[in-house]
Design brief:
- By secondary structure, the protein is α/β, with parallel strands linked by helices.
- Helix content is about 40%, strand content about 20%.
- It is built from 6 helices and 6 strands, in the order βαβααβαβαβαβ.
- Strands 3-2-1-4-5-6 form a 6-stranded parallel beta sheet.
- α5 packs parallel to α6.
């Protein structure tokens, strides 16, 4: 294995969507684990890449998406995990972090061959992103305590599918290894 990157999926969010009330309890639980992953990745100088939905706002850029989320009534879920000045940001429009985004190119430019996924939603965007990473021959780790779900049963099934069908490592966030391995 070579170089790693931490990918934070859809956590810059206003939670103004249809499934928000089902999602919010899970998001509240995972924020501390995401914060810990961010701190550890940054301490090891592992690139942190936020890949976030644009919520259909085609004129938005990452700064506007962040400002809108920080001005929302759920800013307390965004503030602790906000991007720092070193973070990279990719805007997406669909479930997968790779679909019609420059992420594959960016990972190639950075020499990344192992992605560590956290964020939301386990049974949707995380699952599809893990599959697309696997198809691109990337090693995938999912921090199971740092991914939020809408439906717990579907999230559990998604994690099992990622492990079994995609060879993803499913582990607790504090067990993720950020140090380079030879």
């Amino acid at each position: 294995m070579g170089k790693k990157a931490l990918i934070v999926i859809d956590m810059i969010n206003t939670y103004e969507h249809a499934d928000a009330q089902l999602l919010l309890p899970s998001v509240s639980k995972i924020v501390p684990a995401v914060v810990q992953l961010l701190e550890r990745a940054r301490a090891h100088e592992v690139p942190v890449i936020y890949v976030n939905d644009n919520f259909g706002e085609w004129r938005s850029h990452h700064g506007e998406i962040l400002e809108t989320a920080l001005a929302s009534r759920h800013a307390d879920l965004v503030e602790p995990i906000r991007p720092d000045e070193e973070s990279l940001f990719v805007v997406k429009a669909r479930h997968s972090i790779f679909y019609e985004t420059p992420l594959s190119y960016l990972l190639g430019q950075l020499g990344i061959d192992h992605v560590i996924l956290c964020g939301q939603v386990t049974e949707q965007c995380v699952l599809y992103s893990a599959l697309d990473a696997h198809i691109r021959h990337l090693h995938v780790t999912v921090a199971e305590d740092a991914v939020a779900h809408i439906h717990a049963d579907l999230a559990d099934a998604a994690l099992r599918m990622m492990q079994r069908n995609m060879g993803a490592e499913i582990t607790a966030g504090d067990a993720v290894h950020f140090a380079a391995e030879s």
